[in-house]
DNA sequence: ATCCTCCCCTAC
DNA sequence: TAAGGTAGGGGAGGAT
């Protein structure tokens, strides 16, 4: 059995200096400047890292299994082809209080007790249903939860067991032929059982099928799951919630509206803390209330897209298909706990940044991806933060800023790592953040492409590697199939040039960000496309932890002006003693009178001038631009060519206008006021037009939030048409159309001829070797076993699924031919291509070829038309 | 108009 | 000892 995680942690830091006073946070060995292995240990202990990185592990597992099956994962994990079905059967299945259940399974004496899974007195990740009766919830601190539930027991995490059970349930899901699986999270998935449950030969109806799946989960994992069954993801998901714990609920199409009308808007997926606050203030609490609002009203208040979505959800319109894993658009890592550096610890800070960059580069490399941009996200302590010391090691009140930089593509591990480091150092330099303000770092690689150059760990190129996104091309491909599978390999340029070039020129100067070397290491044609656009945004963001849709957790929060730029009083309003004689109509007299005279004066002045532009705003913009951006920019340049520098200067965007206040900020301000602090000093007040401030104050006093909060009316009064609002239904059909469009009927995709099992095995090796760096920490011996089981089950399932599809498509085709819907015939043949792609199963090939012949003959016979449908697999014997 | 960057929100 | 990650959707506003 695995050792307890606390012992693991202890052994990990056994080599560290031990505290002289036990339990003293002055000697806490965990923070970043006291633990040389901080990044590794932190991720190993972080539950959010565990659940956040689940998808990446799942993806790697599926790819590995597909490799062993010698099938293209794109076809194995294809989207459920049921979008055209009049009535789908979607299941949402979710483990009951997952982490807590696992704890009970590991220690049955905990059964029926109030337990919470957390680190000591820390944030609760999951708690038993017994504890929930007392109001205990995920996201609370155990200390606070114990006030609600004095008997609450804290139990530690055990990630390897979560991982093992997670793999178990997914293996099990994949053991049902014809069931499509979409992974949602470590304990939760959608299943499309339309075909399986409706199949006449299958005696099991939907309820029985789901019941049997759930029984199997209990039997094989010892933990319970709940499930919802409905005609859409939305309904299935909502039904799961109602069914919990350890139950299942089916909502039939005719009862859907009736069912959702019993719910509140905050029950809708996608409606979180902020949106639901917003809704409350507008006067929307329930689904029927939401449905009564017009589309344009919702779009005005919540934005074009979210408005449309809310409009649809209120009517239970949701045709999102159960989808396979989609390729990620970004890969990144972030740490904002335990980050402490003293002023004299530059080297430790560099090491931390380097470790984070290595981590991200490894994650990118291990899946064979490449990006064109990196994004740096910095947590900076607010000047008045109460979390100065080492007591809790949280980041405390912070401002967050993020910046994006271009990087060359392709990019090997070392180059990427350095690009990430350099970008980070550059942001630090330009914002003049001090070590002791540094509270967290996020690094991301974005605009990902898959299947570019891959390198093994010796730096030598791995030749002949197939594009990884061929795994995903069912849903993602833009180029025609032929291009996706053929063209890419040949297009790949020799990696060594890039590699050595960047190493040789890059290692000399640590302070230079990659931007300055781009021209040297990037192929010409790419250089032209690159923009060195660096923009500053120093809008403060108050980071708050919150419970599920609950009020933000208090964090000793005070909103204070950002002091990155020395505040010389430039923001302070002139202290003119003005008159308060006339208060304009509609203004709150009490509020107005409470304002300092200087504000009152300026307010009146503004009102007289009918000025909507803000002097405060203008002032601020100017100040930021001159004091922040310009001088630092100059100071950070060491080796930039003057041409590059000029370009960067020229392209720096102008200071942004202050954004609309958010729900979070509003709540913070109100909290400040309630604590008796000077609200007018709040950052959000000092940088906004006075008029807006007064509106805010009025809202504060009235406990509502109306005026400044609702989105500003569009200038024209009419929603712009530029980005057409697309509902789920439209989006899905569009997406499907886009996919189908890329498939050419006449040219069969290349099949077995380009499948080189040696090559793929070699790649698999690399993937696993690299992947181990991230997966290893949760792995037990059992995981391998279950991976094997998954493999064998899926092998069987794959065959069944394939033959099922032949029959499915055959039925549709014959019907289409009868109705002389030849376009439909073509569509369905495209569908066939989709399923067939990359498949290594001989029986399937023969079946498809036979079917195609059959279709051709049938069309000729019935309509005298020659459809010219070449066999998909010319090489397969019939 | 459309693209891009930065930010906010959401889910687990 | 309180191990606050990961990824995507989408909006606002400046750049092009
Ligand atoms: N804020 C959160 C939410 C969830 N999790 C982890 C612990 C949960 O066990 C797991 C699954 O999340 P769920 O939302 O499914 O919650 P539970 O499974 O714990 O409870 P439920 O029975 O409501 O599904 O993810 C977490 O660490 N922190
Ligand atoms: Mg759950
Ligand atoms: Mg869940």
From TrEMBL:
Keywords: Cytoplasm, DNA damage, DNA repair, DNA replication, DNA synthesis, DNA-binding, Magnesium, Metal-binding, Nucleotidyltransferase, Transferase. Residues 21-32, 479-495 have a biased composition (Polar residues). Its EC number is 2.7.7.7. Residues 1-32, 479-556, 603-659 are annotated as: Disordered. It catalyses: DNA(n) + a 2'-deoxyribonucleoside 5'-triphosphate = DNA(n+1) + diphosphate. InterPro entries: DNA/RNA_pol_sf (IPR043502), DNA_pol_Y-fam_lit_finger_sf (IPR036775), DNA_pol_Y-fam_little_finger (IPR017961), DNApol_IV (IPR022880), IMS_HHH_1 (IPR053848), Rev_trsase/Diguanyl_cyclase (IPR043128), UmuC (IPR001126). Its cofactor is Mg(2+). This is DNA polymerase kappa. It comes from Gracilariopsis chorda. The lineage of its organism: Eukaryota, Rhodophyta, Florideophyceae, Rhodymeniophycidae, Gracilariales.
